Amino acid sequence: MIQLDDITKRYGSKVILNGVTEKIETGEFFVILGPSGAGKSTLLKVFAGIEKLDKGKIIVDGKDITNLPPEKRNVAMVFQNYALYPNMSVYDNIAFPLKVRRLSKNKIDEKVRNVAKLLGISDILNMNVTKISGGQQQRVAIARAIVREPSFYLLDEPLSNLDARVRFVARGELKRIQKELNGTFIYVTHDQKEAMSLADRVAVLHNGNFEQVGKPMDLYEFPKTRWIGEFIGDFPMNFLPGKELGLEEGIEIGFRPEWIKEGGELKGTVESVEVLGENVYAFCTVKDYRITILVRKTVDVGDEITFGVTKFRKFRDGKLLE
Amino acid sequence: MNKIKYIIPIILALYFVFPLYIIVLIAFSPAKYTIETLYQPLIFKGFTLNNLIFAFTQYDFIGPFFKSLAVATLVGVLAVIIGIPAGYGLSRLPDRVAYPALVLLLITNMVPGLIVAIPISAEFIRLGLFDSIPGLAFVQELITLPLATFILRGTFSAVPREVEYQAKIDGASSLKYFMDILIPVASAGIAAAFLISWMFSWDEFTYAIILSPIHPTLPIEIYVNITRGNLLAAVAFALVFTLPVIVLTLFLQKYLRGEYLTGGVKA
Question: Which parts of the sequence belong to the ABC transporter domain (chain A) (predicted)?
Fold first, then answer.
């Protein structure tokens, strides 16, 4: 179990992390999600020991590692650009953490070959890492991370440099590997789709703190704040003043594009349309508010649509009620 | 247009190779066709090794040659040994700090050599470094070390910071990271820094003539022979003088592409 206690990090007068506190269970796939510049990578570097903390503690399995240098922490990391050692072959890259730990040659060989088999890179072991494809480089980086048994794994957007199709496959594979190893994965991404499909729990980093931590579906269904509602989901959550639906003053309602039925008390004008397979999303203006809804029929720009909200959450001052 | 593309480089190449050709011509032709005639032909009319044999047997060539070799090698080695930590440090500083530091380093290159050499020679006599190999190497380092540092900083800057983090996370000490990863990755830049320092020292003149006049280096020896009228000896020495440069350049040419300034590292 990893305990984060009041993690605080400043760059000059700029506060990047403002007292992050959370517990991450052993064997959990924990995704840290946030827009770029939110401090996700800084948080990961804090875990790794590359960045020093201004305040706070990191406790792993009861042991305080806050002031340990990276080489003494026994963590593994996969960087966004993979950070492979360009002067070494695939084999030597994977073997490097073991060589540093002075394992015997036979033991190293056995481990490297096992990991290579797990990741399907046995046939490129002797190639130089600069001569293999991006997808293969990503596997080598993961292989190097899992070849030893670290107390936890840190992954910094490892899939973002892959093209869409490869990324989809790699995502599934990553989840499989995590389950197979039963490892604690801390995964950073700005891609909420990735977060939703990989995570046991997602933590949304905003303004230097975890604004909400929860299961992916909970984040979608019950966003704690208006900001999260807009950030999570393919399309932001829609917000309307409560009085549009006859609710009391000061309350906002939030609803997802698919939480509506056609025909109802609200009327909007279609501004633009996005077709995703069978689903048609219409971007409308209702009074002065911009609303995205899911419609089953084809609509044209300029059409008038009436719809009713079937399910909604209530917000006051940008925070979820109840 | 297409033809011009070839013609201009060929003209330029001829222009640069021509002096070398003249040296070869004089070195291997009997003197009666070259320095002893008024209208010298531009083609070989005869072939002889006598000029070279004469030059190398009558004059002290070995001494200056090895002095030059020792000084140049020392300059190259020192530039790399000091330039690596300096370049690494600068590569890890923010640009707004690193650039002024680099400019400051390069200022020594703007000061005329004579102005530096004369006060230094007085100091060197006191220190016992005058006319010595290390003494001359230290002074030439004034020019080459900033250049080497500049090249190496570029090389190290091209190695992503994450590679260093990764090595640390993988459990490597700073020394292990340096020896196993950074130095091998930066080998092209290191070779370039060495070569440039070595070649600068090899034909450096101003410092050499002021700081090492008694046991001169090869460029000084050639100069002395020319001024004394020993043209044949000068030509023979000049020929031998260019050979190591050609050999070294061919040997290290794969590192000598413009990209060494930005590192030439692909990660």
Answer: 2-232
Q: Which residues of A touch B181 (CB under 8 A)?
A: 85, 87-88
A263 and A281 co-located in one domain: yes
Pick the CATH number of B60-261 from 1.10.1060.10, 3.40.640.10, 1.10.3720.10, 3.30.110.10: 1.10.3720.10
Closest-CA distance of chain A to residue B35, Å? 54
**Structural domain boundaries, residue A289:** 237-320
Residue B31: what are its φ and ψ, rounded to 5°? -60, -30
Full DSSP string of A119-179: HT-GGGTTSBGGGS-HHHHHHHHHHHHHSS--SEEEEESTTTTS-HHHHHHHHHHHHHHHH
- CATH number of the domain bearing residue A213: 3.40.50.300
Task: Calculate ∠ Cα A201-A203-A204, nearest 5°.
Answer: 140
Q: What is the pTM of this model?
A: 0.81
In a mutational test of the A interface, the residue from B156, B162, B166 whose CB has the highest number of chain A CBs within 10 Å is: B166
Contact B168 A87 (CB under 8 A): no
Query: Would the CB atoms of B163 and A83 count as touching at under 8 Å?
Result: yes
Ranges of each domain in chain B: 1-48, 60-261
What tens-digit pLDDT sequence spans chain A (322 residues)?
899 999 999 998 899 999 999 999 999 999 999 998 888 989 999 999 999 999 999 999 999 999 999 988 999 999 988 999 999 999 999 999 999 999 999 999 999 999 999 888 999 999 999 889 888 999 999 999 999 889 999 999 988 888 888 888 888 889 998 998 899 999 999 998 899 999 999 999 999 999 999 999 999 999 999 999 999 988 999 999 988 787 888 889 999 999 998 888 888 899 999 988 888 899 999 888 899 999 877 788 888 888 989 999 999 988 898 7
To the nearest whole Å, the CA of B192 is away from the closest chain A CA by 18
